[in-house]
Amino acid sequence: MPTARIESLDREGRGVVHAEGKVVFVDGAAPGEVLEYASYRKKAAWEVAQIVRIEKEGAARVRPPCAFYGTCGGCSMQHLDMSTQVAAKQRVLEDALWHIGRVRPETVLRAIQGLSWGYRHRARLSARFVPKKGGSLVGFRERRSSFVTDMTSCEVLPPRVSALLPVLRALVGRLTLRERLPQIEVAVGENSIALVLRVLESPGAGDEEQLRRFADANGVQIWLQSAGPDSARLFWPPDAPVLHYLLPEYAVRIGFSPTDFIQVNHATNRLLVHAALALLDPRPDETVNDYFCGLGNFTLPVGRCGAAAAGFEGSAVLVARAQANSVENGLADRCRFEVADLFRPETCARLPVCDKALLDPPREGAIELVKSFERTRPRRIVYVACDPATLARDTEVLVHAQGYRLAAAGIVNMFPHTSHVESIACFER
Asked: Do domains 3-61 and 122-188+193-240 have the same CATH topology?
């Protein structure tokens, strides 16, 4: 088997080796390591390999605290110290901006980091009834597999949620619909934990009693989802409080349903909102449009700063929830919300002019919205991105076609120990 020295990390957090005219990506490797590897996937120009033996460990290697790391597919970088993880993500962002967007930021922002462990307040767990493994399994899927990891704890879930994994397994095993329950979604608020069971058939009376007992014994909410996310309904307890998270710096409380999109890392989200508003600098005499506003995560703090804030979002359900949050926080006079499909050019062509803009699109980016800025011409734009490639694509339009400067950019380490790169960028005319 070949032996090589790991040269760097790729955008998936894998070690990179050049050998015999090919690039080899080695799972679980650290920079500078000398190791033996075996390829399990081969193409004409590249291979993917796994470690057979490490001859010399790299300085960045640490011992993963999770007993299931390497089998579970939830994390891919627990073997690397945090400074190496952050540096790798920063390089992914800068490479994308340069190679795709043909631009470098004038200022590289310090990485935004919150909790590194116990941070996942949103998670989608698979559930399977597997008699050969002793019953039911609840957890993340295995790496490179559709099998569910045989796990009893998780270091990136909040400790209280991690502790629920063994009792969740036991619960699923007792249900008669256990083979019709493929997924359990977890949503954690400041005040409660919600478990959304994806059920392919309605639970019978016996199953309903099991679910009620489990909710009461563990202090959680049980929701049942029979179809898409909007079909989720509270099952027990009937008087469960609305889930919410806090942005204390802005005295904002944001209520949400357990299937709504929220940032998974509440601590990092607070830092992200602070950083975004520091870059945006909303003033009382300004109008600010918040695109892909969701529940009002940025809109409401902008309103709290005194600006006239308008949030635009494609989901009518989220817009209604954002409006309710504005009333709850006493900001209905400063914040308004509107349903708008921001992927449609005709919608973007009708958007109102504003002084400043903030956008937080999904992975697809915001190319149609960005093109519309040629007409609306906000003097400052803060772009929160969950994919460096689409951010770089949109940056090329803003900088080279519309005359904006990329004043600053940096990463947001929203998902520590994974290769997922979130980022923030600020553009000015």
From this structure: yes
The C-alpha angle 250, 329, 240, rounded to 5 degrees, equals 110
Q: Any idea what DSSP says for residue 398?
A: I
The amino acid that residue 285 corresponds to is D
For 312, the token pair is 């635009």
Cα–Cα dist 294/72, whole Å: 31
Superfamily designation of domain 86-115+244-428: Vaccinia Virus protein VP39 (3.40.50.150)
- CA proximity to 259, closest of 294, 297, 230: 230
Active site annotation includes 72:
no
Is the separation of the CB atoms in 31 and 9 below 8 Å?
Answer: yes
**CATH classification of 122-188+193-240, choosing from 3.40.50.2000, 2.40.50.1070, 3.10.560.10, 3.40.50.1450?**
2.40.50.1070
Residue with tokens 């058939």: 201
Report yes or no on whether pTM surpasses 0.90. Answer: yes
Neighbour count for residue 144 (Cβ, 10 Å): 12
Which residues does residue 223 pair with via DSSP β-bridges, in sequence order? Answer: 196, 234
Looking at 305, 335, 386, 426, which residue is catalytic? 386
Could you list the pLDDT tens digit for every one of the 429 residues in the chain? 899 999 999 999 999 999 999 999 999 999 999 999 999 999 999 999 999 999 999 999 999 999 999 999 999 999 999 999 999 999 999 999 999 999 999 999 999 999 999 999 999 999 999 888 778 999 999 998 999 999 999 999 999 999 999 999 999 999 999 999 999 999 999 989 999 999 999 999 999 999 999 999 999 999 999 999 999 999 999 999 999 999 999 999 999 999 999 999 999 999 999 999 999 999 999 999 999 999 999 999 999 999 999 999 999 999 999 999 999 999 999 999 999 999 999 999 999 999 999 999 999 999 999 999 999 999 999 999 999 999 999 999 999 999 999 999 999 999 999 999 999 999 999
What single-letter amino acid sits at 388?
A: P
Measured between alpha carbons, how far is 200 from 179 in angstroms, rounded to an integer? 9
Centroid of chain to Cα 306: 29
CATH number for the region 3-61 comes to 2.40.50.140
Cis peptide before 237 (omega within 30 of 0): yes
143: Cβ–Cβ under 8 A, 6 or more apart, which residues?
27, 70, 71, 72, 73, 76
Q: Give the Cα separation of 408 and 104 in Å (integer).
A: 9
